[in-house]
Amino acid sequence: MSIQSEKRTVEKMIRLYCRLNHKQKELCPKCLALLEYAHKRLHLCSFGNKKPMCKKCSIHCYSTEQREKIKQVMRFSGPRILFSEPFTYLKHLLK
Known about the structure:
Elements: H1 3-21, H2 29-43, H3 64-84, H4 86-94
């Protein structure tokens, strides 16, 4: 999966999380900051397009605080994205 594809997936998950938890049509400032952070980390990934899933990666490039935030988003959005974005879910699952 390419870095651009990873960026799209994480953005969909953060948007879903924000919409359902913060009741915002657009990303709230905290979720926007997390999205920008995630995109920056993906852009700087030393594995490039051969990067593994973050939870299986040998290099943890997120700060501890940001890692906890993204885990919370993933735990919440992962099961729910199946219904809102089934194709995205399947691509992520097959990776």
